Structures are given as C-alpha cells and as structure tokens.
Amino acid sequence: MGIINRAIKNISKRKIRALLVIVALSISLSIMVSIPAGLMANQKSTNSMAENLSSTITDTSESINQALNQIDVYMSSRYAGFGFNYGDTPPSPQSGDRIIGGNNGNNNDGNPGRYGGFGEGNIPGQFGGINDGATPMNQSLYMDIAEISGVAATVAELEVSQGSKNQTTSMMGQTFTTQITDYTIIGVELKSEFTSNSNYNSLPTNIVNGRNLQADDTGVVLLSQNNSAFFEAGIGDIITILDHEFAIIGIYQPTTALEELVLYMNLSDAQHITENAGYITTLKVYTTSSDSVDFVVAKIRELHSELTVTTGQQRLNQLETLQSTYSDVLENTQSSLAATQATAIQEIIVVVAATSLIVLFVMLYTVRERTKEIGTLKAIGFSNRAVMGQFLLEGLCLSTIAGIIGIVIAIFAAPTFSALLLPSVSSTLGMNAMVAGGTRVSMASVSISVELALFAFGASMLLGVVGTLYPAWRAAKIRPAEAMRYE
Amino acid sequence: MNNNVLEIENLSRTYMLGKQSINALINLNMHVSKGEFIAIMGPSGSGKSTLLNVIGCIDKPTSGKICLDDIDVTNTPESKLYKIRRNKMGFVFQSFNLLSYLSARENVELPMEGKIKDKTERRKKASELLRLVGLLDRENHRPQKLSQGEQQRVAIARALANDPAIILADEPTGNLDSKNKQEIIKLLANLNLTRGTTIIMVTHDIQVANNTERVLLLKDGNIIKEKEGLHLAKKQNMCPHCKGSIKIYDETCPICNKKLYEIEEFFTI
C-alpha cells in the first residue's frame, strides 16, 4: 500500500476517463514517433540514392572509356528528349512498355529529360537517356554503314522493355502513371567475330553460371541475376517470354543498376517474338581504331542524316551533363527533405502541445473533482509535496501506459502516419529515386527503431509530468479548511 | 511544563467576505488539559468549526496565541504545519472522508505513511486499531461496503493512527442514526477512558454533548457558558444521579438503576 498503488487504484477507479485519455495520448504519441521514423526512412533512401547515383556514374564512365571506338547509331523519335509518352506518338513496338519519364522540374538546363529513361535498364556503356524513345529502324536500309572504311564491325540490336505493373506517382500536383519494367529484352546480332572478341562491347562479360551467348544461338537467353530471381528460374530452365519459350543458357552478374533488368538473346529471336522482323533500335559501329571515329561519324551523317550518332566521347560529355543534373536532383531532394524536416518539427510541436494539454485538462478536472479528498489528506498530515507527488505520479502512470500503447500503435501504423503527415518528400523522393535506378522510397520501409521507441517512451513520461505539473501544484495549494467545506 | 495539551489566548479569526469582514472568533480563551473529553456546542455561525479548524492547524488565526502540547503553532509556516497535524492531531469528520478506493485498513494506514517507514509495521498497527474499534473482520472492505457507523469507526481508527495528542471531531454523529450515534459516542468515551486520549468534539446534539466531560457553549465567536457533562462523573466512578459508585463500562447505575448515557436537557440554547 503505497503512493504507486494509490495512483493505480485512482486511475482504475475512473475507467472510461482513463481509457479516453490513454487512447488520445497513445494516438498522439504514435504520431509523434511516426514522424521521425518517416524522416529517417526518407533520409536513408536519399543516402542510398546518392550512393546509387555515384556508383552508376562511375561504372558507366568506366565502360565508356573501354569503348571509345564504339559509335552508336539510332533514330530518335521527336519526343525522345522528354521521354513522355504522348498520346500522338507514332506507334512503336515498345511504346506500351515504356516508363513514362517525368519532367523533374530542374531540367531547364538544355538537357530536358535526358535522364528520363535512365532507370529503365538500358545496356551499360550505351548511356541510358540516349536510346530513350528510339524509333525502330529498318535494318536493311543501313547495311551500307558496315562498308565505310575504318569500320571494323557493326552489331545490330533491338531493345524492348516489358512491364506488367503500373505505379502512380504524384509530383508537383500532377499524377504520373509509370509502368514498372519487369525486364528489358535486348536482341543482339550474334556473329562469331563479335561473340568471341571482347573488344566488342555488346554482351556482358561476367558470367557467373552457364555460358555466354555464342554465334547462331537461338531459342536461348542470357539472364541477369535479377532476371533469374524475377523468373524464378535457373540454368537449363525454360521460361516464357512474350508467349515464346526460351532456355536459360547463362546468368551474368550485372555491373550497374541499369543492367539489372536486361536479358540478352539473339536479334532474330527478339525481332520474331516482338513482331519486329527486320527492325532494330540501335546499330553499334566499331571502328578499327579510336582515330578513325571522327571520319566514320562524318561518313554516317553524310549517308543517313536522319540518324543520331553518338561516340564514346559524346557519351562521356553527356555523362558529365547527366552527372550535374543528378547532383541537382540530389540537392533538390535534400532541400525538400530539409523542408519536410521543418514541417515535421512543427507537427511534432503541435502534437506535443496537444498531448500536454490533454494531460493538463484531465488532471485539472481530476484535481477539482477530488478537492475534498485532497483536503482530507492534508488534514491527516500529508505534506504539500506528498499531495503533489500523488498527482504527478498519476499523470506519469497514465502517460506511461499511453506511451507503451502508443509505441505498439506506431510499430503498426508508422508507415500510414508518416505517409499521411509527410507527403511532399515521399513523392518527390519516389520519383527521383526511380530516376536514380530503382531505389524507391517505400513507406513500408518506415520502421520504429529501439532507440526511437525508448525516446518516445521517455518523451511520453516527460509529457505526463509536464502536463500534470500545474494541476498537481494547484492540488498542493488547496487549503484543507476550504476543501472540507467543498462537496 | 504544565498539564495543558491546548492553550488558546485572545484568539481571533476574521474572514473577509468580499469587502465585509466577518469575525468568526473574537478574543477567545480556552484551556484543555490532557485526557479531557470536551464538547463544543453552539448555534450555526457561532464559530465552532472555525475554532476546531484553528486548533487542528488547518486554519490560521488572525491574532492571538495557540499552543499545542507546549509548542506555539501560531506562526508556524504551512511547510511545517503538516507534521504537527500528522503527529499531534487526529481528525474525525461528519461525512467520514474516507478514501473510497482504499480498503478500511488502507485508510487507517494513510496517516502513518509519512511517519512509519516499515510497511508491515503500518499494516500491523492499522489492524490493531481496527480491532480496537471492533472492525478487524472488515479490514479489507471498501468504505462503501460498510455501514455509516462502521465508516465512522474506521475514521476514528484513522484518527488514532499516529497516537495524536488531540482528536478533533467535527460533528462525528451528525450523519448517523440514533443507534450508531450511541455506538460512536460510547467508542469515543471508552477511548478517552482507556487510552486517555484528549477529545475535542463539535456537536449540535445535546445527547452527545451530555456524554462528555465538559461542554462549552459558543456564541458569536466566544465561549459564553461552560458545564460539566455526565462523562466526568463516570471518570470519577460516581453515578451522576445518586452519587453511588459505578464501574467504567456500566450502562446503567447499579444503585439507582438510571441509564448512565441518558439524554438530559441541560442546555438551553
């Protein structure tokens, strides 16, 4: 029988009131915990996005350096720059399979949307944005490029992305529907002189299982490890791609985030299953040496003015532009994160104030209601301090119970609460993260750490004491003679 | 060192009611010796409750001097007064003022909390006191499960918790029926006889007052009359009616056969 026992008895005596207070307190506490949890998740994904960006850029620039004698030739659609899938785009085989890149707000720098298609899994070393929105071209019309002097070889490729799920992202007041790419098919012209020569940068090199594609392989595919996981299939298994069956001949380890979704097959197989017979999206031209690149480029432009030609050097330049765009995106994200943090702090202040006020008013009411009891306690020899302690302890008990329940609620509801309360950063980040190569901020990743739970628990107890301080002081100041008269 | 447990000299208490001042007590003098059983009577507004509150250190006099057990408490600050209330005073209220969420024993333990650190000792003493008031078998009952008379007996046990110098009872029988009234007054009288507890009781009830040792009549803030009660005779083992010899617990006089706790109109207010 002590002060704690009395506090608990007093609380349990007024069950409905205690319940209401605990519900109100625990909800506001769980909100209070969810906000920092959401912020932490955002921060974490921003960091991983930054890491992803820098590693992607490093990997890409490495592979470009290795292939300075490679020229990419393709036909760009008139909307390719933005990567938007406008309704009046001329029908193209892959239009339905494209990610609709978003205009990110900070690309008024003359390179609009260059990164629009970056995240969709283009081949490494052939920089993402360049091929975005490429229009298929009739392969037979460009046979003459191989005849240019200084050209060692040409490799034709057809790239088609396949997706099944749609994702809606809202940003800056607009809603974008994006299709998540499941995998990207790249059909490669398999000639013995390329498949056996590592100078030709058309196929991945780090095979971890099985073997690489070889000349005249047909009905087989080379999967990335990510593809293998997606199809839930391994070496020798048969998978179905666009209603056609393929045997898995090899699995490679992707070197960049861009490569993760790419599966390789024979060009003719790709043309057949995508109903693009005779069409390609890219012609890779390899020169005999890097010295002859300029001459070959000039010649290709002379022969086919409708084509876009990029060299390794150009790709490096584009990469630099892209790099600066990315750092802008990152900066933007970080400043938006900072803004969200400011909002979060305001929200936390409101919640803290509300919580303290709930405790304050309930305890004030309780003190008023128990005036006679307080008078009795003082008359039989309780000190002011003992009376104050009694009420502080009751406030503390209420807020401790509410704290525990609040943390339990937060563990389950933190993703919902932080999505509701921190909308701006999540969507912006979501879009940017997608651009960065697949790191999406998922609110499901919001979780309550042990530290955060302990912090919230401490905070709830502190709030309980703070909210009860004034009522308890009022109780201590009650004069027993007056309290006796109070009914 | 004298035998007085309470000495009041020229005590005044003035309330401010808005701009009007009300003199509840005016130059009151009063002495109570150890072991006395005193009743204070008087009409409403005569200052009975104010006097009891001032004695009980829950109200402060405007002027005058008040000594409890040879300690001058007139100018003791509130921060120390609670100890005097705890150690020297025992309160019994008209409406019992038990904490409804505590058992009878827990209620009795309450005043001991600041004084006796040992839990078991507190519990033991509380049980002992409940035995004294005849409620040992009810010690785990909540107040609302007890009759009004039983509740007041728990309150009396609580008042005895810290072996106070004085028990202050404010209309202890005011809420009770006549049977319970008899029970309580007998209990108080016996406590006074057996334990020598000084009791100062405010009452409206002549029957109750009659059974004390000394009755003070208060009017307009001062004591205007004083009279001996039946209890004095009992203390002296003498029947107040026939002056024959009686024993402490006798209900009726063995000689003249008159009831020893009979109602007698001896005050006309």
- The number of strands of chain A is 13
Could you give the order of strands across the largest sheet of chain B?
6-7-8-3-9-10
Low-pLDDT runs of 5+ residues of chain A are 78-132, 424-442
Distance from N terminus to C terminus of chain A (CA atoms, Å) equals 27 Å
Number of discrete helical segments of chain A? 13
Tell me the structural class of chain B: alpha/beta
Oligomer: heterodimer
Shape of chain A: elongated
Helix content of chain B: 25-40%
State the helix count of chain B.
8
Proportion of β residues of chain A?
15-25%
Query: How do the SSEs of chain A run, as a string of H and E?
Result: HHEHEEEEHEEHEEEHEEHEHHHHHH
Give the largest interface: A-B, 24 and 35 residues
Distance between the termini of chain B: 37 Å
Query: Could you state the order of secondary-structure elements of chain B as H and E?
Result: EEEHEEHEHHHEHEHEEH
What does this molecule look like?
The complex is a heterodimer of chains A (487) and B (269). Chain A has 487 residues and is α+β, with helices and mostly antiparallel strands. Chain A contains 13 helices and 13 strands. In chain A, the strands form two sheets. In chain A, strands 1, 2, 4, 5, 6, 7, 8, 9, 10, 12 and 13 form an eleven-stranded mixed sheet that branches. Chain A has a two-stranded antiparallel sheet with strand order 3-11. Chain A starts with a helix and ends with a helix. With 269 residues, chain B is of the alpha/beta class. In chain B, 30% of the residues lie in helices and 25% in strands. In chain B, helix 6 links the parallel strand 7 and strand 8. In chain B, helix 4 (119-132) crosses helix 5 (148-159) and helix 5 packs parallel to helix 6 (178-195). The radius of gyration of chain B is 19 Å and the shape is globular. Mean pLDDT of chain B is 87; it is low at 262-269. The chains are: A alpha+beta (487), B alpha/beta (269). Chain A binds chain B through residues 1-3, 6, 9-10, 13, 372-373, 375-384, 386, 479-481, 484, and chain B through 53, 56, 58-59, 78-79, 82-83, 85-87, 89-91, 93, 97, 99-102, 106, 109-111, 113-115, 119, 122-123, 158-159, 161-162, 170.
